[in-house]
């Protein structure tokens, strides 16, 4: 069963990553759309962290979830301040809709997992999610941002997202031992 759960999550994560990234590569985004994508990613990962914090019994996963909640709550607040400063609103787009659809499916999966499989499922989901988020941020959103303050903000959060991916991969390796 453990192998099947891992395989399901990995397939789901790989599909999400490739479809989202391939789709994003073909679209030109404006700044309100970029803000919407980053805002959506921040909300989604914060929500995943909340679920993990309530379900995990693993201290390392709990600490990671707390960090995710704190970091992405902070990113969200910074996005709101930047939107206000730049007098920009968010503009929903295909990527935000896709992310929200994937979130709904991932939350169902996370909430349906037996306790003994929850940590594996959560961490595998975080690795796939961060892999896609970092790739889209670095390869699509930063290059397409037009406003210098938005571009600077995206460049500032990029290493933080990369660190979250590294941490999730490290936890994934330890859980899978």
Brief summary:
The protein is 87% helix and 0% strand. The chain has 177 residues and is mainly alpha-helical.
Summarize the structure in words.
There is one protein chain. This protein is mainly alpha-helical and 177 residues long. It has a single domain (2-19, 31-175), classed as Up-down Bundle (Ferritin). It is built from 6 helices and no strands. The two termini are 16 Å apart.
List keywords for this structure.
single chain, 177 residues, mainly alpha, Ferritin
CATH homologous superfamily designation: Ferritin, core subunit, four-helix bundle
Q: How many extended strands?
A: 0
* CATH topology (level 3) name: Ferritin
User: Please, how many domains?
Assistant: 1
Distance between the termini: 16 Å
Outline type: elongated
Number of helices: 6
What can be said about the biggest beta sheet?
A: none
User: Into which percent range does the helicity of residues fall?
Assistant: over 70%
Which architecture name does CATH use? Up-down Bundle
Percent of residues in beta strands: under 5%
Spans of at least 5 consecutive residues with low confidence: none
What is the residue-averaged pLDDT? 86
Rg on CA atoms, Å: 16 Å
CATH hierarchy class name: Mainly Alpha
- Order of H and E elements: HHHHHH
């Amino acid at each position: 069963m453990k192998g099947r759960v891992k395989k399901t999550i990995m397939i789901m994560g790989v599909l999400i990553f490739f479809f989202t990234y391939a789709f994003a590569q073909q679209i030109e985004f404006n700044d309100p759309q970029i803000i919407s994508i980053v805002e959506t990613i921040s909300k989604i990962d914060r929500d995943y962290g909340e679920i993990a914090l309530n379900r995990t019994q693993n201290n390392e996963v709990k600490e990671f979830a707390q960090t995710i909640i704190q970091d992405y709550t902070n990113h969200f607040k910074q996005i709101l301040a930047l939107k206000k400063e730049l007098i920009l609103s968010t503009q929903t787009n295909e990527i935000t809709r896709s992310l929200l659809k994937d979130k709904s499916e991932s939350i169902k999966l996370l909430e349906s997992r037996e306790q003994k499989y929850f940590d594996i499922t959560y961490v595998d989901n975080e690795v796939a999610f961060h892999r896609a988020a970092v790739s889209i941020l670095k390869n699509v959103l930063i290059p397409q941002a037009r406003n210098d303050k938005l571009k600077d903000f995206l460049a500032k959060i990029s290493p933080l997202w990369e660190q979250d991916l590294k941490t999730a991969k490290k936890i994934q390796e330890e859980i899978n031992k």
